[in-house]
Description:
The complex is a heterodimer.
Chain A: E1 2-5, E2 8-13, E3 25-29, H1 40-47, E4 52-56, H2 72-85, E5 91-96, H3 98-109, E6 114-120, H4 130-137, H5 142-151, H6 168-176, H7 181-194, H8 198-204, E7 209-214, H9 222-229, E8 236-240, H10 247-250, H11 252-266
Helix pairs in contact in A: 1-11, 2-3, 3-8, 4-5, 4-7, 5-6
Chain B: H1 15-21, H2 48-55, H3 70-83, E1 87-91, H4 94-105, E2 111-115, H5 120-129, E3 136-140, H6 145-151, E4 156-162, H7 174-183, E5 188-191, H8 196-199, E6 209-213, E7 227-231, H9 244-247, H10 258-262, H11 266-278, H12 285-296, H13 298-317, E8 322-326, H14 336-342, E9 350-355, H15 358-368, E10 373-374, E11 384-386, H16 398-403, E12 410-414, H17 420-435, H18 437-442
Parallel strand pairs in B: 2-3, 2-4, 4-5, 5-6, 10-11
Antiparallel strand pairs in B: 1-7, 6-7, 8-9, 9-12, 11-12
Amino acid sequence: xxxxxxxxxxxASTGGRPFDKKKPLIIFVHGSGLTHMTWVLQTRYFAFHxxxxxxxxxxxxxxxxxxxxxxxxxxxxxxNAVIDAVGHKEASLVGHSQGCLVxxxxxxxxxxxxxxxxxxxxxxxxxxxxxxxxxxENNDPKAVDLMMDWAHGPAGHFGGHPVxxxxxxxxxxxxxxxxxxQNTLGVDFRACDNYKNGFEAAKKVKCPTLSILATDDKMCxxxxxxxxxxxxxxxxxxxxxxxxxxxxxxxxxxxxxVLKKFITTNYPPLSS
Amino acid sequence: xxxxxxxxxxNTYKFDTLSLHAGYQPHxxxxxxxxxxxxxxxxxxxxxxxxxxxxxxxxxxHIYSRISNPTVGVLEERVASLEGGTAALATSSGMSAxxxxxxxxxxxxxxxxxxxxxYGGTVNLFRLTLxxxxxxxxxxxxxxxxxxxxxxxxxxxxIFGELVGNPGNEIMNMPEIAKIxxxxxxxxxxxxxxxxxxxxxxxEHGADIVIHSLTKWMAGHGSSMAGIxxxxxxxxxxxxxxxxxxxxxxxxxxxxxxxxxxxxxxxxMKARAEGMRDFGPCLSPQNAWNVLQxxxxxxxxxKKHCSNAEEMVKYxxxxxxxxxxxxxxxxxxxxxxxxxxxxxxxxGSMIAFGIKGGKEAGVAFINNVKLASHLANVGDTxxxxxxxxxxxxxxMDEATLKFAGLSHxxxxxxxxxxxxxxxxxxxxxxxxxxxxPRLVSNQ
Lengths: 272, 443
C-alpha cells in the first residue's frame, strides 16, 4: 500500500492482504540499504493471521519516495509518524540490523505506543568499518558485495534458501543495488556509525522484547546482542546456530516460529 | 609492521566452488555429502496451519514435486549462483523452460521479437504454436540489431534469442539489444545453452532472463533431459503498465502482486506458482541429480571442449574437403570481436562447416564417421554431428531455412572431449567417403 508521511509517498508491503484498521499493527523495519522484501518470509504469515503486517520501505529506499533519512533518531520519529499516518494508535515493532537501532530508539521515544519490540541481529551500536563506509559513500558496488559476504554465515554462503530456487546472496545484492548505493547504503551506514544512544534507549524500553541472535553473525555478534538485551527488563533471547546476520532469510522458518510465539502471546491478533 | 591497511575483499565463493557446493547444506540433510535424491511426490505438513502457510506462500518449503522438490531446488540454486541470478526454476526440458518463460511473460494478444537463428524446435514454437495461444512473433536476423528496434510494437512484451544461434553461430549483440529492450521497457530473454555460465554470464551484458537446455553442456554426458530459466533480478516490472500479471493483484493467490511482494525474484515466483501449478513441466529429482553431477565438472569439461573445438577449427579450415567454417574463434567470422567481449573464457564447442559436394557429400560424411555420433543433440562429452537440413531443421520449408541461415552443405559439429587426434582421424574417414559418395554408398 502507499500513503504519505511528511508529504512523501511511502510504500509498505501488507503481506498480500488488504489493510484493515481493526487489526493490530506490526511494523517491520529493514536493515541498511535494503527494502521491505527482506521480510517476505515473515510478513505474509502475520498478514494471513489477524494482523496488519506493514513491511515499510524507509524514505529513499525500495518503492518509497523522498530522500534517505540521515540519522537513526529521524528514522525513529518517522516510524512513529507511520503509525499515525495509517490511523493506528499503537503498534508492535520488528527490526533487523539497522532496523533494530531504529525500533529501539522509537520504542524509547514513544513508550506508550509500542506494545512489543522484536530485534533480529541487533546491537546497541553498529560502528562501521571505515573502508566499508567509504566505499558505500562513494557509490562503489564493492560495498554491497562486502556487506553480502559478511551478512551471511558460512552455511548461508552455500545457499539453501527456504524458498526453492532462490539464491540468498544474489537476491540481497540485487535489493541493495536497486537504488543508488551512496544514497541508500551510504547514508544508512553513516547513520549507524553516528548513532550512540542505543544502550541508553534500551534502558527506557519497558514493553515485552525479543532478541533473535545468530552464532555466525559477524555484523552484530551474539555478545553485542546479549549486552543490549541485558539492559532491557525481561528481554527474551533466542540464539540460532549455524546462521549469520541475514537470519530472516537464512533461517526464515526458525525466525518465524519464534516471532510468531512471541508476538501472538504479547500482542494478540484480531480473532476471526 | 606496515601502516598500510589491508584492502577489503569479498570472500564469497568463486565459480568452481559454487559448481560443487551452491544450494546445498549437508548438515540439514543427515550429513550426506552428496545431494540426496528426494524421490517423493509430496511432503508432510506439520499441521493445518503449516499447510495453509505453504499454499499461501507465507513460508518457504515443499508441497508437491510438480511445484518444487528439494533435489531439484539444489540444482536451481546452483545454476542461479553460477549465472549471478537471483532465482531459477528447473523444468523437464529446455523447450519447456522457453514455453514457461513466454507464458509467464505474455497473454493472448501480446507480441515478441525473436531472433531468426534458433534451434528448429524453438522456431516452430514461436512461428506455429504460440500463435495458437494468441501470441505473435516477429523474426529478426540476429546481426540486424536495428531490426530488433524496428520490430517492437505497442504490445511487444519481450525480445528473445539464442546468444549464439543454432546452427550458424551468428552472435546477437546482446549489450546493444538489451539497451533496445530496456528503452522500450521490456525484458531481454536469452537462451545461453551453447555457452553455459562458464563461457558467458548474460546478466552482466544486459539480459534479464536466461534460459538453458541443461540437457547439453551443463549436464554434459548425454544422459538426462532438463531445462532451466534464471532471473537476473534487475528488471523493473513496475516501470510501466505492460505487465499487469506481474504487478496487479493475482486472483490465483489471494490478490498477490508478484512484483511488489517478491521484487528481484518476481518472475521466478510467478513462473513457479502459476506455470508449474497449471502446466506442470516439472523436472524429475533423478534427472536433477544427474545434471548436478555434470555441473560439478563444468569448468573442467568446458576448457577441454573449447580447446578441442579450436583444434578442429584449424583442422577444418585447412582441409581440402571443407568449403567454409563458422566458429567465433575464426578471425574473419563476422562476430569475432563481439565473441571476444562476450565469451572471454572460450568461444564454445559448436562448429558449423560446409562440405564440398553439397547435400550428397554431407550425407556421405555423416553416414561414414564412426567415432562421432550422428544424433539430434549437442553438448555431449562425445563428439556429435548432424546434417541440419535433413535433421534438426527438416521441418522448415526452403524459405525458412534460408532466413534461418541454413544451407544444404552445412554440417553441425558439437566437439566432444575425446583425444583430438582420434576425432580428426574419424573425420578423415568421413571426408574420404564424401569425396566419393556414390562409390561408398554402393559398397
